[in-house]
Design goal:
Blueprint lengths: L2 H12 L16 H6 L32 E7 L3 H12 L6 H19 L7 E5 L4 H7 L3 H13 L10 E2 L12 H9 L3 E2 L12 E9 L3 H12 L4 E9 L1
Parallel strand pairs: 1-6, 2-5, 5-6
Antiparallel strand pairs: 3-4
Helix pairs in contact: 4-6
Length: 242
């Protein structure tokens, strides 16, 4: 047990967690409330048109040319989903990583059964990186916690640490006014892969894990450097569509 897990166990003992949905003790999001969050069918992230595999429409592909598909478990407009992601991302509720990771896994398994979105055998999980300055301020990378939860449930390997780096401390995308163009400009040049790390992505399918996707600008920019490093295809795997 590492220091964080020890501290979290102590805090849970002194201050038992309450479900953000029903206030029940001993869970940040109980199984009943988690099951109440409806899963959403895959579709085109840009226009919302439903399709079987989460790929982009031919006319929408130009907005995210480096992404193969984006799959999301639910949507940000659902009140409990909104509260869970706000607590998880901004209020330090790290314990939500497990139930939110489970939501992603449940959604992926449902897609495999119904839509035949088989995850390639060479797939690697890549948590969306934070800039070191923001990581110090927040104290944790919520996407890394989600990737760890997915890894534990699906046994998918995680891209080695410091392979995909965030080298530009961008403004939060939610604060960008001006739509897709402003968001694209905000994240331009935000990511890099060191030359000695490119071997880990070459020829692979990379599943970028993040909490939310709105226009897909951040995912696409991360996918761009992965593609330039030789990745075969890049998926976005997120908790919610914004």
């Amino acid at each position: 047990m590492d220091l964080f897990q020890w501290k979290q166990s102590l805090l849970d003992l002194l201050f038992p967690p309450h479900c953000i949905g029903c206030d029940a003790l001993d869970s940040s999001l109980c199984a009943t409330c988690l099951a109440s969050i409806p899963l959403r069918d895959p579709g085109c992230l840009v226009c919302g048109a439903r399709n079987r595999s989460g790929i982009f429409c031919a006319s929408c592909k130009r907005f995210a040319p480096f992404l193969t598909r984006v799959l999301w478990a639910s949507t940000y407009e659902i009140d409990l989903m909104f509260r869970a992601l706000t607590q998880f991302k901004y209020n330090g509720n790290r314990a939500l990583a497990e139930p939110l990771g489970t939501l992603i896994v449940t959604s992926l398994k449902k897609r495999v059964q119904e839509k035949k979105n088989f995850i390639p055998p060479d797939a690697l999980l890549a948590p969306m990186p934070l800039h070191p300055r923001r990581l110090r301020a927040r104290g944790y990378n919520q996407s890394a916690l989600l990737a760890s939860s997915i890894h534990q449930e699906l046994a998918l390997p995680i891209l080695p640490k410091n392979t995909l780096l965030r080298v530009k401390n961008t403004n939060p995308q939610a604060k960008c006014s001006g739509g897709r163009e402003a968001r694209n400009k905000n994240v331009a040049g935000a990511f890099a892969i060191p030359a000695d790390k490119q071997i880990y992505v070459r020829g692979k399918t990379i599943l970028i894990v993040d909490d939310i996707a709105t226009t897909g600008s951040t995912l696409n920019e991360a996918a761009r450097v992965l593609k330039e490093a030789g990745a075969r295809q890049i998926w976005g795997i997120v908790v919610a569509k914004g």
